[in-house]
Every structure is written in structure tokens, then in C-alpha cells.
Specification:
mainly alpha
């Protein structure tokens, strides 16, 4: 099987698991801060040590952008990764929203959408954008560092990245609901529209695409500026 195809499938599976598990926990627990944050982190750890050796376990367009800007992947690979991540996230969201619907329990909505309502808590649109940019920058910057071959942390990278994502969610959930991942936000925004008929998340989703990508670009710049040795 083509190597890039294997990577695409791995990224699709990883993002599916992330959205299905983490958004499912967010919905079942009513958006519990600790439970949701821990689930996002634990999924990253699980996926890092399962699909990491295949695709690097980005499962997030922002992470892939950081790798593209630091020349760890090609533009073609970036495009394939992002498409796979969005597809996997959408499948995970559609399935978990559907399970909630079939179970006739409280519709999955605000608790797992991230954007819904939370943007105002962070100080309006500007506050939400700044929050997501900063949190994504922190997350991607850590990833770029711990996955650097020179760092000597490759065996521990999955745990460090998972704990960092947990930290980011603990900070961000009360402010924006935490996205730092465009694929997840796109998936849940469209699923909320399909199953609940609500358009709030879809109307706000642009912020949770733009801000994480901007944060990833900032992280790549910092990494290159601080860690690239002069020839």
C-alpha cells in the first residue's frame, strides 16, 4: 500500500477517535472540565503510541501546518493530512451525535462544540481569537520540540503532548470551549446543524479555523527562531 495512503488512513482513524471519544465524554458529562480535558489528553497518548509510527499522529490541521512550516512535510502531504483529519473528525462527530440522538438523551451541543457561547466568555471575538492563538501556539511549540530528533524525547513525546493538550483544555474550556483543532470544530459544528438544527457553532467556526492556524504559524516561527542553529 502506498505510504501516503497509509498515513492518510492513520490520520483519519486518529481524528475519528479523538472526536468520538472526547466529544462523547464532553456530552455525557455535561462538559465537565476535568473529564473532558483528560479525555483529549489520553486520546492523544493512545493514538501517539499506536498510529504515531505511521503518520506521526498529527490528527490536527494546526499541527500539520506547524510541521509544514518547519519543513517536516511536503505541501502534498499537508493537503492529504488535512483532508483525512477533517473526514475522520466528521465521521466521529456524526457517529457520536447520532448515538446521542438514538438514545434520546440530551442532544449533544454546546458541551462538545467548543465555539458555542464560549467565545463571549473569553472577551468577545478578539478575546476568543487571542485565546485560541496562544493556546495553539503553546501546544504546537511543545510538539515541535519534543518530536525533534535532537531533543532525545521521542519515547516520551506522546505522554508529554497528551499532558500539554490536557493543560490547554483546562485553561481554555472556561474561555472558549477550547478548539486548537480546526478539524474537530468543523466536525462538531456541522453535526450540530445536522442533528440539532443549530447554526451557532457553524457561524462561529471560522474563528476556530483561523486562530489555531495562526497559533501554529507562530509556534513554527518561534521554533525556527530559537532552535535553528546558524550554519
Amino acid at each position: 500500500m502506498n505510504a501516503l495512503l497509509k498515513k492518510a488512513i492513520a490520520e483519519c482513524i486518529g481524528t475519528f477517535v479523538l472526536v468520538f471519544a472526547a466529544c462523547g465524554v464532553a456530552g455525557f458529562t455535561g462538559g465537565s472540565l476535568v473529564a473532558t480535558a483528560l479525555t483529549f489528553g489520553l486520546v492523544i497518548v493512545a493514538m501517539a503510541y499506536s498510529i504515531g509510527r505511521i503518520s506521526g499522529c498529527h490528527i490536527n490541521p494546526a499541527v500539520s501546518l506547524g510541521c509544514l512550516l518547519t519543513k517536516r512535510m511536503t505541501l502534498k502531504e499537508f493537503g492529504v493530512y488535512v483532508c483525512s483529519q477533517v473526514a475522520g473528525g466528521f465521521l466521529g462527530a456524526v457517529l457520536v451525535f447520532g448515538i446521542f440522538k438514538m438514545g434520546k438523551v440530551t442532544p449533544l451541543g454546546d458541551a462538545c462544540n467548543g465555539p458555542v457561547g464560549g467565545a463571549m466568555t473569553a472577551g468577545g471575538i478578539i478575546g476568543a481569537l487571542l485565546t485560541e492563538i496562544i493556546l495553539t501556539c503553546i501546544f504546537v511549540y511543545v510538539i515541535l520540540n519534543v518530536t525533534d530528533e535532537k531533543a532525545g524525547t521521542s519515547k516520551k513525546a506522546g505522554i508529554i503532548i497528551g499532558l500539554t493538550l490536557t493543560l490547554v483544555h483546562l485553561i481554555g474550556i472556561p474561555l472558549t470551549g477550547t478548539s486548537v483543532n480546526p478539524a474537530r470544530s468543523i466536525a462538531t459544528a456541522f453535526s450540530a446543524l445536522i442533528y440539532n438544527g443549530t447554526t451557532t457553532a457553524l457561524a462561529q467556526v471560522w474563528m476556530f479555523i483561523v486562530a489555531p492556524l495562526a497559533g501554529a504559524a507562530c509556534a513554527a516561527f518561534l521554533y525556527k527562531f530559537l532552535h535553528t542553529e546558524k550554519e
